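Predict structure. Chain length: 156.
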Amino acid sequence: MERIVGIGDYAISDKEDDIIKTIALGSCVAVTVFSPSRKVAGMVHIALPFSVLPNEDRAKPCYYAESAVPFLINKICREYNCLKTDLSINVIGGAVSIRKDDLFRIGQRNVEVVRQKLRELDLPYDDSETGGTCSRTLTMEVSSGKIRIDSRPMII
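Prediction complete.
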């Protein structure tokens, strides 16, 4: 079964025939988590680095990097009995706008906050597919944790 992860959403699966997918990451960031020993995979699609409204990160924990990272890690470890030391983690996305007036640098700030949260949790990660000016669609196989990334030039 294909599970589509929308903006500010997440998916976790332990069904080996499942595929987890998110579409057209621009400045948004996806964090993928895979436990090879438990055969559990998870993904979150983060829109913004942090909330500026009180308690908004509690109402929408996967929308913001500051809350999405601990949310996904805690959920996969508690509900699927995965060990933090067994997790393979990837950070993907966080593109910069091709426009010269990208004042808010949302993509870059999303990546920075995700990295900070993963460091606070003492979790290693691969972030080699971040930045740039491309839109990324990614597909993750639950059975193997294999990630396929389809990159396209951004038009805005």
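Summary: The chain has three helices and nine strands.
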